[in-house]
Design a protein that fits this description.
The chain is α+β, with helices and mostly antiparallel strands and 171 residues long. The protein has a domain at 3-121: 3-Layer(aba) Sandwich (Aminopeptidase), CATH 3.40.630. It is built from five helices and seven strands. A seven-stranded mixed sheet has the order 1-2-3-4-5-7-6, with helices on both faces. Helix 4 links the parallel strand 4 (90-98) and strand 5. The chain is globular, with a radius of gyration of 15 Å.
Length: 171
C-alpha cells in the first residue's frame, strides 16, 4: 500500500463532511449519550463549519488516499487557529482519522510521519494535540511515537463535559 497525501480544497467540502462524520461516528458514538453526540456531530461537522475552517489560512486539512480510495484525513492548526496553545512555534494536530475499513494497517503511523514532516517544513518547534482521557488506544499510539502529557482541557460533546489530555512532541 502506498499512501498519497493531498491538501484539501474548498471543492472537497462534501467529501470532507462525509469522512469527518463517518470516522467520528465510528470512533466515538458508542461511548457518548445519543442526543449530546448528535448535537455535536451536526455542529462540528456541518458544511458551514467545515467550509469556514477550510478557508482559514491557519488551518490545513489533508486527505489520505490508498490509490484512489480516501482512507483518512487530518487537520493541523497553526497560529490563531490553535485551540489551546497559541504559540507561533507550535502546531496543533486537531484531527487524525482513518476509515474503519483501513484500521490496523499502520496508516496512522504513516500519517503521523507526514504530519511531522509538514510541521518541520513550517519551522515549528513542537506538535501538540488533545486526546480524550478515555481513549487508551489513541493515548498509547501517541506515547509510542514520543508524545508526552503536558496538561488537560475540557472538551464538550453536546452538554457532556469530558477531559482531553494535552500531549506534546518536540520536533
Amino acid at each position: 500500500m502506498e499512501l498519497n497525501f493531498r491538501q484539501c480544497k474548498i471543492s472537497d467540502l462534501d467529501a470532507l463532511v462525509k469522512i469527518s462524520k463517518d470516522t467520528f461516528i465510528a470512533a466515538f458514538e458508542k461511548d457518548n449519550d445519543p442526543s449530546d453526540f448528535q448535537e455535536y456531530l451536526q455542529k462540528a461537522f456541518s458544511p458551514e463549519r467545515l467550509g469556514t475552517e477550510l478557508k482559514n489560512p491557519d488551518s490545513i486539512f489533508y486527505f489520505v488516499f490508498d490509490s484512489e480510495t480516501l482512507v483518512g484525513y487530518f487537520k493541523l492548526n497553526k497560529e490563531s487557529a490553535q485551540t489551546d496553545v497559541h504559540e507561533e512555534n507550535a502546531i496543533e494536530l486537531e484531527r487524525i482519522y482513518v476509515t474503519q475499513a483501513y484500521q490496523g494497517k499502520k496508516i496512522g503511523s504513516e500519517m503521523l510521519t507526514e504530519i511531522l514532516n509538514l510541521s518541520k517544513r513550517l519551522k515549528k518547534d513542537y506538535l501538540w494535540l488533545g486526546v480524550w482521557e478515555h481513549n487508551p488506544k489513541a493515548i498509547r499510539f501517541y506515547q509510542r511515537h514520543g508524545f508526552q502529557k503536558f496538561g488537560e482541557h475540557p472538551y464538550y460533546i453536546g452538554n457532556d463535559k469530558q477531559t482531553d489530555w494535552l500531549l506534546r512532541l518536540d520536533l
